[in-house]
Amino acid sequence: MENFRLKVFRTVAEEFSFRRAAERLHLSQPAVSQQIQALEEEMETTLFDRGKGRVRLTDAGVVLLRYARKGAKLAEEARAALELLRGETSGALRIGASMTVTQYILPRMLGPFLEQHPRIALQVTSGNTDQVVAALTKGKIDLGLIEAPVSSREFFRQRFFEDRIVLIVGRRYPWPAKAAVPVSALTQVPLLMRERGSGSRRVVELALRHAGLHIKDLHIAMALDSIVAIVSAVEAGLGAGFVSEWAIRKELRLGTVRVVPVEGLDMRRDMTLIRRFGPVPDGPAGAFERFALTGVEMAGIFR
Q: Tell me: the pLDDT tens digits for 2-56?
């Protein structure tokens, strides 16, 4: 329902690139350039400054982008209203999810959700918690699923799942099997942690602080940007790592890693759904929010 030329224009403006816009729209780059040229002729103004490999909006482009976004939103609302009359929900849904959610939790949710709403087209992007929050702030996603609390009053926040972070070592690591270690033992082992900005790292640092340890007391051997990298490093005997218990189900079955209980350290966290503050949205975003907040655990998805 959105005007096609305005859709192409909006995509180029959001991607800052004709090439990336062409990939996103499944068009050739010359076709994208042709649509922008035709729109500029129709508007009798230049919409983009093109130079030195960079694409930037002109003042006229900034103004048009504001109205193009309003038009796209209005078209989506009209589509959602018509589908509601037919008892259907369809359209695009953009979800941003932190790493743990993307790799281990969201896939279990999407199967049942898409069975209920087969006409919804999903786009999932992943990043750490800070990156997901930034994408929601900029309007690049409709909903975020994150691992750490967010204090901003701009967002509606609701827990949808509880996760537990555990300490793991390789199977040959010289700590007694099944025995708990004192929290002070963490100062004597190389630790593998997620990068700063990660929700997992925030939870771990907060739990350690409550247990009397400061981050400067620890030997952080490596900061890694994914759970998979931490698990692989632990399997290779490079140290101990903190990961979601959902991330190591296969490794525990195979015996390549083991969980080490730490006295006085119970790291549970809420996985949180966030969106811009306001009433429950219509259409795909509202359908997913209702599913995530009312149906996930009752449906036995995570049993």
A: 789 999 999 999 888 898 899 888 889 999 999 999 999 999 999 998 876 678 8
- Amino acid of residue 48: F
Categorize the per-residue pLDDT at 144 as very low, low, confident or very high, splitting at 50, 70 and 90. Answer: very high
Least Cα distance to 143 among 132, 127, 154 occurs for 132
Domains and CATH numbers, the chain: 4-84 (1.10.10.10), 91-161+270-294 (3.40.190.10), 162-269 (3.40.190.290)
pTM > 0.85: yes or no: no
Pairing between strand 190-194 and 91-98? unpaired
d(CA 222, CA 242): 12
- Residue pair 193/242 in contact (Cβ under 8 Å)? The answer is yes
In sequence order, which ranges of the chain are alpha helices (DSSP H)?
4-15, 18-25, 29-43, 59-85, 99-100, 106-116, 129-137, 199-210, 227-235, 249-254, 283-294
